[in-house]
Specification:
The radius of gyration is 29 Å and the shape is globular. The strands form 6 sheets. The chain has a 5-stranded parallel beta sheet with strand order 4-3-2-5-17, with helices on both faces. It is of the alpha/beta class. Flavin-adenine dinucleotide binds next to helix 9, strand 3, helix 13, helix 14 and helix 17.
Length: about 650
């Protein structure tokens, strides 16, 4: 078909040249002679966005390069152990994270621009599970300082603080109101998502570092007073999480016995006390907690003769095994449309497969009570979100019959006996160093500051440990870098490889020459800069589908009594293949492009006996003509034509 006269007159949608451009762009001249800047390559380390978006700041790129075999361990360390040690520098729970972290790192991953993100948490699970299998330990901690820290709460924030403090040489005592450590990893998230043998192992590995005393079954504020702690300890870290569920703000909720909270229900289920649910369960939520409530309800089912759920939650009864189960009818309601629910897309799909009825864009209006004052239905209406608040659509009201209503719409702290610390919103205030404002030697971390994720609590546990360490050593608090993470450090890497530069001067981190006292051609901007995809040479990376983990999500007919683990880890071969999809944003991954394409042979490989990660290539500046080909063909965005700027 020929082009019509009309189409011929239309402007093209893509033009290589602008109007008025009539000079031939001589690439040969541009590239092979020199550019006009006279600048030469410098090697620049930046933080990759995966690390920048991981709330515990893991050196993800580092452990991916170790798993795929590019970054080498020291001679006496196994590759898997080295990957484990790198990942746990920031976060001592790789098996937990790999399974249930919603992985904000993956949203940030530059690989999304090429095809699909790197399956970071599947490789993290592989690292953690291999460590479990092989029984890796944390490296010998520093000698004791003689100082002692009280940590209130043995959830992820408190355990992370104890771990980081012990690495710095400080002993601690962890107080926890529950019988076992783990916080919401044990008493919130069900065991088919965080298997208890793996959780126990990851907790024990921290305790095995020694000098971390554990006092479980002790509630601070009731069994032990704040004054006692202030007398006995050099510093106090509050990591008590959020254990009070919010009720529904609708008439009929307050004081109704069969209106309960999600955290209350899950606590009893995880303690092994709640084994059945009523016949008709309605859960109001849309986030992580609500998904666990409905998935657990579908698994437990209902049974004639079981004590009422609210009695088990209130501690008045405990369910026994042995009753005949049958499926419960379970409904989940959310204010938002399905694709805007806070729970991840996968979790929502799993719940649907398990037979949960999900009603989206609806709001609760009233709890309908019977003559005995028990909830028999929840009155709802379709709604729109206006300025963050739900507004009911008139005439759309309807009722859902129920035997129990579970509210999973958020939590605050349980500050019984600790009312002085309440900031008025059921939480505790923290300044930027995680000190409790106006309370000398009190520090705080985790959900009690702002409920979020496991990895966030773990990251804050690490920051608070830095602050407490500075406090115990009488130092001023250190200004946190803009990108607050556990960065790759070339000096440490050189030291580990036995390649310490001679007579190194810390102020001189820019090197232009081959003198050994300078860090050869390396500029570390990782504390301030995150590298975006447009800095990379993306053409280097062919499309590769993500290596997916298998999941065991039962359908509606098979969910009853199904408590097997949901996510199966990757085999080694697949974990390595997945790590190989990483584009190593911001750090050399030894592809040799710059060496191969340099027309002047100015770029060369550092001799093998002097080479390590971050010191693999160098430039002979007497040969470089500033053509910038090496910077153009570097896939990782590690080369800047910057030499000459300084
Ligand atoms: C049901 C549910 C599912 C979740 N799912 C996920 C998920 O899939 N992925 C994810 O990343 N996050 C998830 N989260 C969020 C995550 O669990 C929390 O962000 C995280 O556990 C917070 O850690 P924390 O250490 O601050 O508090 P917690 O884990 O709550 O631990 C606090 C600890 O303090 C103890 N304590 C409290 N008060 C006292 C006191 N006065 N004295 C002594 N001890 C006390 C408690 O017993 C507890 O052990 C979920 C949360 C819930 C409730
Ligand atoms: S903790 Fe979460 S955000 Fe961090 S690397 Fe692991 S999966 Fe990613
Ligand atoms: S490609 Fe690799 S280094 Fe880059 S953001 Fe993704 S995981 Fe991180």
């Amino acid at each position: 078909m020929s082009t019509s006269a009309e189409d011929m007159k239309k402007s093209h949608t893509f033009r290589r040249f602008e109007d008025g451009e009539h000079e031939w762009n001589d690439l040969t001249k541009k590239i092979f002679v020199q550019d006009t800047s006279h600048k030469c390559p410098t090697y620049v380390h930046r933080t990759p966005p995966c690390q920048g978006s991981c709330p515990s700041g893991e050196d993800i790129r580092g452990w991916l390069q170790i798993v795929r075999g590019i970054e080498k361990p020291p001679a006496d360390v196994d590759k898997h152990e080295y990957a484990f040690l790198r990942s746990t520098t920031a976060n001592p729970f790789p098996s937990m994270m790999g399974r249930v972290c919603p992985a904000p790192c993956q949203e940030g991953c530059n690989r999304n621009v090429v095809d699909d993100f790197v399956g970071i948490n599947s490789v993290e699970q592989f690292i953690g599970d291999t460590a479990f299998e092989k029984g890796y330990k944390f490296q010998a901690p520093a000698a004791l300082s003689g100082k002692k820290v009280a940590i209130i709460g043995g959830g992820p924030a408190g355990m992370s603080a104890a771990y980081q403090l012990r690495k710095k040489g400080h002993a601690s005592t962890i107080f926890d109101a529950q019988e076992e450590l783990g916080g919401m990893m044990r008493y919130g998230i069900p065991g088919y998502r965080t298997p208890r043998d793996v959780l126990d192992h990851e907790i024990q590995r921290i305790l095995d570092m020694g000098d971390i005393e554990v006092r479980t079954g002790v509630r601070v504020g009731e069994d032990v007073s704040v004054e006692e702690l202030e007398k006995d300890y050099d510093a106090i870290i509050w990591a008590i999480g959020c254990w009070t569920g919010r009720g529904l703000p609708v008439p009929g909720w307050e004081g109704t016995p069969n209106c309960v909270t999600g955290v209350g229900m899950l606590e009893r289920f995880n303690q092994g006390k709640l084994k059945y649910v009523p016949e008709k369960v309605v859960c109001v939520g849309g986030g992580d907690t609500s998904i666990d409530v409905v998935s657990v309800s579908r698994r437990l089912g209902t049974a004639d003769g079981a004590a009422p759920m609210e009695d088990v939650i209130a501690g008045k009864a405990v369910h026994e095994d042995g009753l005949d189960r049958r499926p419960a009818t379970v409904t989940l309601t959310s204010l938002f449309p399905q694709d805007e629910m806070t729970a991840s897309e996968e979790e929502v799909e799993d719940a649907l497969r398990e037979g949960v009825d999900i009603k989206c864009s609806v709001m609760p209006l009233e709890v309908i009570l019977n003559d005995e004052g028990r909830a028999v239905a929840l009155k709802m209406a379709e709604c729109d979100m206006v300025d963050g608040r739900p507004v009911a659509r008139e005439g759309t009201e309807f009722e859902i019959e129920c035997d129990v209503i579970v509210a999973a719409i958020g939590q605050t702290g349980d500050l019984k006996g600790l009312e002085d610390f309440d900031n008025g919103r059921g939480l505790m205030d923290a300044d930027k160093f995680y000190c409790v404002p106006g309370r000398a030697k009190h520090f705080v971390a985790g959900d009690i500051v702002r409920p979020h994720l496991l990895t966030t609590a773990i990251g804050q546990g690490s920051v608070v440990a830095d602050t407490v360490d500075e406090f115990l050593n009488g130092k001023e608090f250190h200004k946190r870098p803009k990108v607050d993470v556990h960065h790759f450090n070339l000096m440490e890497k050189l030291h580990e490889a036995g390649l310490d530069p001679d007579d190194y001067q810390p102020d001189y981190v820019w090197g232009t020459s081959e003198q050994k006292f300078a860090i050869h051609n390396f500029d570390d901007r990782s504390e301030a800069e995150i590298i975006s995809a447009d800095h990379l040479f993306l053409g280097h990376f062919p499309e590769e589908p993500r290596n997916l983990r298998e999941t065991d999500v039962p359908d509606s007919d098979h969910v009853l009594g199904h408590f097997e683990e949901r996510v199966k880890g990757l085999e080694e071969e697949k974990a390595v293949a997945e790590a190989e999809r990483c584009m190593s944003c911001g750090l050399c991954f030894e592809c040799d492009n710059c060496v191969i394409y340099c027309p002047q042979d100015a770029v060369y490989r550092v001799p093998k006996n002097e080479s390590t990660t971050g010191r693999y290539v160098a430039t002979d500046y007497t040969r470089c003509i500033g053509c910038h080909i090496c910077a153009d063909v570097c896939p990782t965005g590690y080369i800047d034509m910057g030499m000459g700027d300084h």
